[in-house]
Amino acid sequence: MRKTSLTLLILSLVAFLAYLFWPAPSLEQQMQNRYVPAVGIGVIKGGKVIRNEVLGELEADEPATPDAIFNVASLTKPVFAMLVLKLVELGEWDLDSPIHPHWIDHEIKEDVRHELLTTRILLSHQSGFPNWRWNHPSGKLAFEFDPGTRYQYSGEGFEYLKNAIQQKTGKPLQSLVDSLLFIPLGMPHSSLVWGADMEQKPFAKWHDKKGGVYDTYKRKEGLAADDLLTTVNDYCTFSLDVINGAGLSPDLYEEMISPQVKVNRKVDYGLGWLVVKNLSNGEYALVHSGADQGVRTMVILLPQSKSGVIVFTNGDKGNKIIRRLMRENCPYGREILSAL
Hints:
By secondary structure, the protein is α+β, with helices and mostly antiparallel strands. It has a single domain (26-339), classed as Beta-lactamase (3-Layer(aba) Sandwich), CATH 3.40.710.10. The chain has ten helices and eleven strands. The strands form two sheets. The protein has a nine-stranded antiparallel sheet with strand order 3-2-1-11-10-9-8-7-6, sandwiched between helices. A two-stranded antiparallel ribbon has the order 4-5. Helix 3 packs across helix 6. The chain is globular and about 70 Å long.
């Protein structure tokens, strides 16, 4: 019995030492092991982009280029939220006015709780909607709790707000985001729709857990919650704008980063961003991630030190690669990730 126990102890010690000292795989090896062909990474330090590159392949035998376009999934949401805040800054929209004079989805028109919906509630994921209406047992849009009472992540909430803004302005989302964000900031490779010119552009194809290629869905109408097409450089440009105040008044910027609702013990949701406050150096972080078929993405920004990291991947198993790059490149990245 004693000999068996000693053997087990020695084996456990050997395994522990191997875990500590065995060399970690290179990034390229990890990409190969996880069937993630392409990784885009942008690093901002001191208010300047110090790294902007795309590694790997868009698909088999098609090398990635720095101008590769990724579908960044829910990293669309902070972009849409900033568009809304720009409209608020211009006096063309209001955070706390009811939405229903501009839009009522026909599937909830009989539920009087639609009158409680405001922009603040929708941008902070307090709508009461499921993520998507097909996630509800009825397959229709429905409230799962009273709006404004708690957090529940919802793409439908962002789409609801998009419909109201389009209805009031008479302009499609793509036109609004072009005029207020993409053109003024200089983001020429960003779009919410798949235009005819995309066929000639380098696109990071979507890959499954075994490296197979998914079919590409080519969206013709822009979403507020999903499917932004962009490059690492363009999203760095957007991130720098956020870090530098985004042209918003100090009061409105403070609204964006202020906790609107509790997500967990360490994380709140602001307007379009997860907010991780009280980091060990006294800073706060703005965070968002994205996950769709064949896509995993993340952005972390530290506005006070004017730094940040953006990572795009084109594979279902990209999350561990993202976490690695965040730990390696983002100040307090490990602390931020542990809070999420």
